Amino acid sequence: xxxxxxxxxxxxxxxxxxxxxxxxxxxxxxxxxxxxxxxxxxxxxxxxxxxxxxxxxxxxxxxxxxxxxxxxxxxxxxxxxxxxxxxxxxxxxxxxxxxxxxxxxxxxxxxxxxxxxxxxxxxxxxxxxxxxxxxxxxxxxxxxxxxxxxxxxxxxxxxxxxxxxxxxxxxxxxxxxxxxxxxxxxxxxxxxxxxxx
Length: 197
Known about the structure:
Number of helices: 9
Structural class: mainly alpha
Helix content: 55-70%
Number of strands: 4
Distance between the termini: 69 Å
Strand order of the largest sheet: 1-2
Shape: flat
Largest sheet: 2 strands, parallel
Order of helices and strands: HHHHHEHHHEHEE
């Protein structure tokens, strides 16, 4: 049977973990990559391949784990609110709705930053998120390396999401003493109510 090995048989995670430990060792004390490949019973080329993509793999793993934790927390919150026969509080609503969405947007920005500079407005959004999301702070720390586009973005979906997060945050601050979800915020929907003149 040809093709990729099933995940259980694959040693990629094990080899990458060993490379992380290897990279953390002082350069004078760590063995050569060839010696490490012999110790692990794999090829030098494969280790070089994993080493070249190690930072990307670590970033994807951090995102995957953060998203998994957020989804598990969201399921627990929803189950608890349902068991108690009540609406979610605004804080719970933010944990269920906003956190997974923000993690997705930060990952999209990280992928976008690999292709080129980000817009200054996108860095402003990251500044808002950085207080609660380490992945956003990581991107901010790399601002010089990533670069900032001078022109306004042609696609405003990141900015729109940032505005939505700000509005949700304001709604949370206004309503946190009440302990209830404000009108218009229900299960992932922000209702934009406009008055017609």
